[in-house]
Write a structure and sequence with these properties.
The structure holds two protein chains of two kinds.
Chain A (H helix, E strand, L loop, with lengths): L5 E6 L8 H12 L3 E6 L33 H5 L16 H15 L5 H10 L3 E5 H6 L11 E4 L1 H9 L3 E4 L1
Parallel strand pairs in A: 1-2, 1-5, 2-3, 3-4
Chain B lengths: L3 E5 L6 H11 L6 E6 L4 H12 L2 E8 L2 E7 L2
Parallel strand pairs in B: 1-2
Antiparallel strand pairs in B: 2-4, 3-4
The chains are: A alpha/beta, B alpha+beta.
């Protein structure tokens, strides 16, 4: 495969919303005949866990997130509650779960794929998943908690993967 | 006439592309695939997909928010 057919992504975020960009770009890349490697480091490691049910979207300090109802009358669905609700209210226990649930509902309504679906499609199309060994140990993750097919390595391996490509994204 | 039809109605980016790729990978060269999509973004996306992968986009038709892409596998 020619050099410019290779791409790498560094995935650093581990919230529910930020799980999507690396998997969407990677799966689309391989579908378009690119050879793709994702290097998961720091909080991005959460995206490789077998159990993704703990991934949450945080409404705290997330001022750009539109907050609209995925159901109800049309006029209600048009209201963006994001700027209307004071940040302090998001400290109420359960607020994060509620917002995550609403985002999942919205995504389902729009025919957006689930994280697991995108992730398994990436694997089916041979996207290479590398988990940063240092941060796996740093955060006390157990390798058993991760899905099969993940390689564990360090920053040097990322450079080895990136060396022959010319398309590199940091997410 | 298409040899295969893929109905990706109701699915959003990047699923129509991923499913198109999967469907094409099961087909022989020269065969025709019809992809049905309701995602307006897939008009540009299918075009870009064919551009990059070398598959031939024979036609694109739209009827009331429903798109049909006819692709020839290379």
């Amino acid at each position: 495969m020619s050099d410019n057919n290779k791409m790498t992504i560094i995935a650093t975020k581990g919230t529910f919303d930020w799980a999507f960009p690396p998997f969407i770009i990677a799966s689309t890349g391989v579908a378009m005949d690119k050879e793709v490697t994702i290097f998961f480091t720091f909080y991005g490691l959460n995206l490789l866990l077998k159990d993704t049910s703990k991934l949450r979207v945080s409404p705290i300090g997330n001022p750009s997130m539109p907050m609209k109802m995925p159901f109800g009358p049309k006029w209600l669905q048009k209201i963006d509650f994001g700027p209307k609700i004071p940040n302090v209210l998001w400290n109420i226990p359960g607020a994060e779960s509620l917002v995550t649930w609403l985002m999942k509902k919205t995504m389902a309504k729009h025919g957006v794929a689930k994280i697991e679906e995108l992730r398994s499609m990436c694997q089916e199309f041979d996207v290479k998943f590398i988990a940063c060994e240092m941060t796996v140990e740093l955060f006390g993750f157990d390798k058993e908690d991760f899905i099969d097919g993940v390689e564990f390595a360090g920053a040097a391996m990322y450079f080895d993967e990136a060396a022959s490509g010319d398309h590199h994204l940091y997410m | 006439m298409a040899d295969e039809t893929l109905d990706a109605s109701g699915l959003n980016c990047p699923l129509p592309i991923l499913k198109t790729k999967k469907a094409l990978s099961k087909m022989d060269a020269g065969k025709i695939l019809d992809v049905i999509s309701t995602d307006a973004g897939s008009v540009k996306d299918i075009e870009a997909f064919c551009n990059q992968t070398g598959n031939k986009l024979i036609s694109t038709t739209e009827d009331g928010g429903k798109y049909v892409f006819t692709i020839e596998k290379v």
